[in-house]
Design a protein that fits this description.
73 residues; 3-stranded antiparallel β-sheet
Length: 73
């Protein structure tokens, strides 16, 4: 256990990594408990997926470089 600032390089975690007790990184998934997962909540930049194939900029514009299929639920 470390109870203070720590700098790490090239870290490997076997199992899961819990951050603050509410965010868990494990087995190809990101889970949050009790709230929504927020990406870029400060809106200082956009979000790019798959090397730019799908992008959301900081103003909410969406660019998809490919076909889109929507299923009615």
């Amino acid at each position: 256990m470390v109870f203070g600032p720590t700098s790490l390089s090239d870290v490997s975690v076997t199992g899961q990594l819990a951050v603050g007790g509410q965010m868990i990184l494990a087995d190809n998934g990101i889970n949050v408990l009790g709230s929504d997962l927020e990406l870029q909540p400060l809106r200082q930049g956009g979000i790019s997926f798959l090397s730019g194939l799908f992008r959301i900029d900081s103003t909410g514009n969406i660019v998809a470089n490919g076909d889109a299929e929507f299923a009615k639920m």
